[in-house]
Every structure is written in structure tokens, then in C-alpha cells.
Amino acid sequence: MEFDVRSAMLLSSLFIGMMAFVLFFLRASFPATIRGISEWAVALAILFVSFALFGLRGVLPDFLTLAVANLLVLVGLSLLYFGSQRHFELTVSTRNWTIFTVLVALPLLWFSTVGPNIIAQVVLTSLFMTIAFSFHAHLIWRHGSASFPNRFTAFILGTQGLINLLRLLSLLLTDDSVDFYGSSTLQVVYVTSLIFGSMLGATGLTLMASNRLREDLEHLARHDSLTGCLNRRAWLNNCDQEMDRSRRSGKQMTVLMMDIDHFKSINDNHGHQVGDRVIIRFVKRVVAALRRADNLGRYGGEEFVALLPETGAEQALIVAERIRSTVHNATEVPGCTVSIGVATSDVNVSVDGLLARADAAMYRAKNNGRNRVETA
């Protein structure tokens, strides 16, 4: 049975249109922190019109089904790229891309209207699609996480870039004519890859948006909303895992229990909003003083805990004193100080027991004048 290019193109345009609708719906229901969906939705809507025009060639004037349709492809692919830049919270750079698009669009219009040349039109469009798909695939692969939706979408876009490159080379190196609805093997392979690649790419973008929502929800479930450090449950889970490793390896681990001194007075004298800013600044300074392998968690209110894996008492005291000094020497107003209790594990202590020792040491630091470090 002969492959019906026109019907396939029209059906694919309907699918892309539906995916544009899905993304518009997602944009309305997803949090504003997940960016780029609006650009993707508009881009797919533009590509829906473009594919529909391609499918109606011979029914509508050639100016619409060639010139306008090709220009819409340029605009749609550009918007998809800009949307991905926003999705990964990168600076959206439109200047160079817009110049490149115009440099392709102007001769494309010339060869569509003034000096009609179908080969030149296809060469220009294939050149643009090769670069657009390749750049887009590289962007997602480089800046996206190693999740299936990101890798899948990057693979589809990269494959589309390669196919368009091969088509471009075949046009430049051979004298073959171009018949979009032709039944030659090369033309059928190209059109089929374009159709299914566009459908899979649209699906991939939708999966990327959903995956980003899942990642954000998982992050919220594990992190404190004000400071961004681990919440109590997530930190305790990390502490349990590290305790198991410590027992197997025979290496010590240390817990720091920290409490901001006189924090109630800061809230009473300056208000809770200022108190929140003090906590945020405190966490930033503590994170800067900790090592890369250490874990900081908010234990409750103005009380924080730090897990120092494979760390003995002597080294832990150095880290704790660095934290105390960094917080004490801060120049922001209002400032704060911190009392720190240090407890190091041994073979007989549990996580609860280690935390109890660190807590007792912290209260000893407060009773001895605050702004100091005490060991269990």
C-alpha cells in the first residue's frame, strides 16, 4: 500500500495541535516556577498551522503552503529553543538567533515569490532545521538532568538534526528534484521522520514539563521552604544512612546542633519578616563554612543541625568554630550569634543518642554565655 504523505502530514498537525493545547493547559495549572511552557505551547501551535499548510499544498496557493509554512517552521523552532532556555532558567539570548533567522527568512521569501526556486527553499529550510534541532538537543543534554524525559527529548531533537543534515547534503550533492508528496524512498523516509520526530518531540517536551513538576515536588518534600536546606525528616534520613555506613566502615561521624542566640528578641524588636531574613543569612553563612560532603538541616524554628560524615571530634571542632566565627563576624544588621553543640559517634550510640548528646552540649554552650562551641 502506498504511503499517503498528505494524510500523514495532516494527522501529525492535529497531534501537534493537541499537544499545544495540553501544554497551554499545563501552563495554567503548573506553578510559575516551571518556565518555558508558554513558549513551547505557542511554538507547537505555530508548527500545527505550518504542518496543516504543508498538508494542504495543491489545495491552497503555493505562497501559503510553501513560503508561509516554511517561515512558520523557522518561528516555531526558534520559540521552542527560547522556551527550553527559560525552562532551564538560562538567559534567553534572542539577538544572534533572530539575526540568523532573518538571514534565512529573507532569501527564503525571495525564492518563494520573486524568483521561485523550490530546491533553494528546501536547502534553506533544511539548513535552519539542522542548526535549530542540533542546538536545541545540545541545550537540553547539557543543562537538563539525566532523567529519561530530558535524554529522550534531546535524542529525538538530535536525530532530527542529523536527518535534516543528511537531506541537506543530498540536495547539495545530487541533482534530484524535490517533490514533497513524491513516493521515492528517500522522500518517504524524510517525511516520515519529520512527522514522527515532531510528534515524539512534542511528547518529550510535555514529559519534560511533568518531570520538572515531579522534581520540584520532591525538592519541596525534602527541603525547608524558607532556607532551602534539608527539612528535619530528610536530614534525619540522611543521618540514619550515614550512621549505617559509619558502623560498617568503622569511621566516626559528627553532628553539630546549632541554635541562634536570642532569636526571640530579634523577632520581638524587629518583626518576623526581619527574623526570617536573619535565618536566611545565617543559613547562607553556615553553608559557606561547611564542607561539600556535609549536610545542613533545619531542626525546628531557629535550631539547625549539621551532619559531618567521616569526621572525628578534632576536625569537627574546627568546622564548628569556623561556623561560629563566620556568623559572629557578619556585618548585617541585625546580626546574630550561634551556640553549637558537637557530638561524635561511637559504636554504642544511636542517632537519637547522638542528637541528645549534641543537644546537651548546645545547651551547655548557652548556659556558659552563648556564642561558643561545646563538645559532648
State the domain count. Answer: 2
Beta-sheet strand percentage? 5-15%
Order of helices and strands: HHHHHHHHEHHEEHEHE
Structural class: alpha+beta
Major beta sheet, strand line-up: 2-3-1-4-5
Task: State the end-to-end distance.
Answer: 82 Å
Radius of gyration: 30 Å
Describe this structure in words.
The chain starts with a helix and ends with a strand. Helix 4 packs antiparallel against helix 5 (118-143) and helix 10 crosses helix 11. It folds into two domains: 5-222; 232-375, 2-Layer Sandwich (Alpha-Beta Plaits), CATH 3.30.70.270. The protein has helices at 5-29, 37-55, 62-87, 95-114, 118-143, 148-173, 185-222, 232-249, 263-270, 272-289, 313-328, 351-367, and strands at residues 254-260, 295-300, 303-308, 338-344, 373-375. The chain is built from twelve helices and five strands. The chain has a five-stranded mixed beta sheet, with helices on both faces. It is elongated and about 90 Å long. The chain has 376 residues and is α+β, with helices and mostly antiparallel strands.
